[in-house]
Design a protein that fits this description.
Length: about 650
């Protein structure tokens, strides 16, 4: 099972690396193009030798795998031929059961003939996949993303940087001061609550009295025992905070949109779905998740070395051996805030670590409190099973994110609600003792705590049921933003769909033209298909009578989806030089608007709102998630007032 966990972690890390720019590729390719006929070009790939490595020449079938392949993001671009123009040698491959293959050593050159069904772009964007032998190893670099200029091509009309927008000098001072997520404290509190839940799991709870007793009895005096326990709790806190350090380091070297990509990337959401199901099954008792035992043994062996050093390794040992219970809870928290940046991740981990570490210090100061702790028992198994159902519910959310971005139509709003109703019903049946899971023991009596949670889950499940139908009670306002939006429903005309505001979809130029024509301010809504807070704004704030009236009558509203996966045509695709000097491929509609937001408004989080005059001047500071309708309405009126001046 440890191998499976390692595989999942490896896939996750690999997926994140897809967004990072890397110079770790073995082969350094150069690409050039030559026009040979109307809408036909010869593309040349060249790479210098890499030691004794041998490249597989293009045009070969390696047991169902193409030895080299060019892919273009516009399906109208075709490759007519792909061949090696440098010398190659034939040899029988032991890797492919003595099949004859063509290998190339030294400097290589490959050529491909490319044709265009539509207009020829000024820059051609694509990727090259290839394989090579390194000794007896069959290897591949990550796909090489390239762009090359084409003679006579049509320059991209995509506009990213708008010179008239000055984010530092808006006409009015109303709006939000910066792009910092204002819910960091909330995330810290959620992390703290997650840590408290982890405390009452079978992996952690029994350790509290044992560890506190160890410190108080081993120390020469009570004061020393208390200080040791405080350091123990502090080190637990620091260990969990340290988990997020790589995200701070990575954020300086990778695209600023990496955290948004984490929440909207289809493959990552599917991976999160699989991981959460994996966590749930572990909580149900099918298997135990654990870090390698060798790691725990090493940490444990160091726990007797020195004072502070030994205490640190004791804290590390707790973090490792309790991973089967704490890992899924912390993983759930971090996965749900990963799109907000490195600091929210740290805030969540800090809250979690504080909740885990604080009891050890407090019980050392007040050892009499240990007598009031409930005894370990079957109730902790019930906690794990209920957490397993919660993990399943969150897994459905990640699957819905992927479905929402790709618009597959699998997890529409009512299907999402139905799955949660089923999970809620199963939770209630488990707490009632009707069904048994894992190592759960028979219920001898219904205590007040069990009755409370039965009532809580039953009430929540009953609350969800109206969401299955096309009725005025289907809004589920307590969950606003969490299920798919009302517009993504099984019912073609949902009775709750707001009719007042109909934003222009992903067309900034059209919206700006309308603003000029009608002499109205332009309200830009940076949003995303998988953005929870965007849905909350649309369902709770935009439907407010005053806000609705202002937006529908006094503004031209355009919604720009930063996670829209629709590909731009070949002539619109381009390579954009960002303000920090890096080259970014603009391939999809989402690439275009995410870069537009970053370059002009200095933010990567959604929702973000901006008010422009018809001549493209920024009328106010931008506005982020604002759950209070009155506050949002006042900001709109501020922009409208500035426009009238």
């Amino acid at each position: 099972m440890n191998k499976f966990l390692t595989l999942l972690i490896g896939i996750f890390v690999l997926s994140i690396n897809l967004f990072a720019q890397t110079d770790s590729a073995t082969y350094k390719w150069t690409v050039s193009a030559k026009k040979i006929a109307d809408k036909k070009y010869e593309i040349t790939f060249a790479a210098p030798a890499v030691g004794t490595n041998q490249l597989y020449a293009p045009g070969q079938d390696l047991d169902g795998i193409k030895s080299a392949e060019i892919a273009f993001l516009d399906s109208s671009v075709k490759v007519e031929g792909f061949t090696a123009t440098s010398s190659s040698q034939q040899t029988k491959s032991t890797i492919f059961e003595n099949k004859t293959v063509h290998l190339q050593s030294g400097n290589v050159e490959w050529k491909a003939i490319v044709t265009f069904a539509n207009n020829v772009p000024a820059k051609l964007l694509g990727s090259l996949t290839f394989f090579y032998n390194k000794g007896d190893e069959f290897m591949s670099d990550p796909p090489f993303a390239f762009n090359t200029s084409l003679e006579g091509g049509v320059a991209s009309g995509v506009k990213i940087k708008i010179a008239s927008i000055d984010i530092k000098n808006p006409a009015a001072n109303c709006g939000d001061d910066d792009t910092q997520n204002k819910s960091i404290f909330t995330i810290f509190i959620l992390g703290f609550l997650g840590g408290l839940i982890a405390l009452i799991t079978p992996c952690v709870f029994p350790m509290i009295p044992v560890t506190v007793t160890f410190f108080t009895k081993k120390a020469q005096n009570r004061k020393k025992g208390i200080s040791n326990a405080i350091f123990y709790g502090l080190f637990i806190f620091l260990i969990y905070v340290a988990i997020t350090i790589p995200f701070h380091l990575a954020s300086k070297t990778i695209s600023p949109e990496i955290f948004n990509n984490i929440s909207t990337n289809v493959w990552l959401n599917l991976i999160f779905f699989a991981v959460f199901v994996f966590f749930a099954l572990s909580f149900f008792g099918l298997y135990e998740i654990g870090l390698p035992s060798s790691l725990a043994n090493k940490a444990d062996s160091k726990s007797s070395v020195g004072n502070l050093g030994g205490i640190f390794f004791m804290a590390g040992t707790l973090a490792i051996v309790s991973f089967s219970c704490t890992g899924p809870i912390l993983g759930t928290l971090l996965a749900n805030v990963a799109n907000q940046g490195a600091w929210p991740l740290t805030a969540g981990a800090a809250g979690f670590g504080l909740a885990l570490g604080l009891p050890f210090a407090l019980f050392a100061m007040f050892p009499n409190w240990l007598q009031s702790l409930p005894k370990s028992g079957g109730w902790m198994t019930d906690v794990k099973v209920v957490l397993g159902f919660v993990e399943l519910a969150l897994a459905v959310k990640f699957l819905a994110n992927a479905d929402n971005v790709e618009q597959w139509g699998i997890i529409k709003r009512e299907v999402f609600v139905a799955l949660w109703v089923i999970i809620g019903t199963l939770t209630v049946l488990y707490l009632l003792g009707v069904i048994k899971i894992g190592h759960s023991s028979p219920i001898k009596k219904f205590g007040s705590t069990r009755i409370f949670f039965i009532a809580l889950f039953a009430a929540f499940t009953i609350y969800l049921i109206p969401g299955l139908f096309n009725s005025k009670y289907a809004g589920l306002k307590l969950l606003s933003g969490f299920p798919p939006p009302l517009s993504y429903s099984m019912y073609k005309n949902h009775v709750l769909l707001a009719k007042g505001i109909e934003p222009i979809h992903n067309d900034y130029e059209k919206a700006l033209a309308l603003a000029k024509e009608q002499n109205k301010p332009l309200l830009i809504d940076f949003t995303g298909w998988a953005c929870v807070n965007c849905r909350r704004m649309e369902e709770k704030v935009w439907t407010n009578a005053e806000v609705n009236n202002l937006m529908s009558k006094d503004f031209i509203v355009v919604s720009l989806y930063v996670d829209e996966r629709t590909k731009l045509s070949a002539t619109e695709q381009t390579v954009y030089k960002t303000s920090n000097g890096t080259d970014k491929n603009i391939v999809t509609v989402g690439d275009k608007w995410a870069t537009f937001q970053t370059e002009n408004f200095g933010a990567t989080s959604q929702p973000q709102y901006a008010i422009l005059s018809p001549n493209g001047k920024l009328l106010t500071k931008t506005k982020f998630y604002t759950p209070t309708p009155n506050e949002f309405a006042e900001w709109l009126k501020c922009g409208l007032g500035e426009m009238k001046k």
